[in-house]
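User: Here's a chain of 377 residues. Predict its fold as tokens.
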Amino acid sequence: MIKEELNKQLFDKIPQNATVAIFGACSVGGNILKDLLLKRKDVKTICFIDNKKQGEFLDLPIYGLKEFLDKNLNVNLVIVASLSAQDIVNDILDIYNINYIPISRFIFDYYEENHVLLNDKNYDNVVKILESSEDKELYSILFKARRNITSIEKVKEYFESKYRNINGGVSILKNQYLEYINKDKIKIILNFGFHQGTNDIAFKRLIPNLEQTYAFEPVYDFCKNEFVEQFIKNNNIKIIQKAVGDKIGNAEFFVGTREWHGSSYADFTGRTFHKDKFKKITVDVTTIDVFCKENNIRPDFIKMDVEGAELFALKGGIETIKKVRPQLAISIYHTESDFVNIPIYLYENLENYVYKLGHYSPRVTETVIYAIPKELL
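Assistant: Prediction complete.
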């Protein structure tokens, strides 16, 4: 998939025995040059074009755009490798009748990321885990959108067709984390990433034999909501203000508040670009294995949405999961690593599980991998 798209957008557009220049003396331009030397030995690259740099780059001269055009070099094609002022650059090249290949988001990301994670091999490894053709197609849509091979509109079309109800709203909370779960077999829930607890209103309504939920939310004091608390405040939900990871200790969280659907919202990912606007706190971290052993808990269902720490949490609970065989609903959308590595980790560590895929947003967020023991199907 990736190789075909790269050929389509770049290499197939380069004429045989062409002489080319690369606009952008940068990492993307450098990686394109390296690929040209490997894949198109018939192509000769004679220079880079860059208004912000002078001298040489990768043993080739750098010219400003006007300088390059004034030299009237015998170049068949300019490969644009920079997003900076791309429309203006394209227009000027067109005015001077210079053939060019414009930079696309796909080409930029491919060479900026240096071929990592969202590649053909990882795509194939995840798709083979999913059993249904519908799930394979959904993963393909999301993969292509994340890799900028296809428009995000494809994701929106999927979302609208599946979850838009007759009233014009969307039926998300009745589906997210529960869509493929055998709800009749659940008595004990471990909910990692409780946030305000809105999902647990759905859990209480839709899981007929539910007895107890252990809800982990390290910053619950910052994100709780008075309307939701009217539904969840009882002895059947125990809120535990700890984070979960692969080892016991503590972690720094960055917490802020803003109005969001009439409630306060906590951003505690630790990845914010404006840390000065957030309050830094230290929270305790436990593991699933330790918590379950200390409290003699055998979960029937584990739901996890912990802002990119899912794989750490799974590693800290894999012995419990292997032993007890709960159903799992794990978010995989936070990073490209999660999108690839979480399904593979589960598949490599768990026996006789079936894997399903759910997606609950018109964007590339809110993707869930479901792992269900075969004996519960």
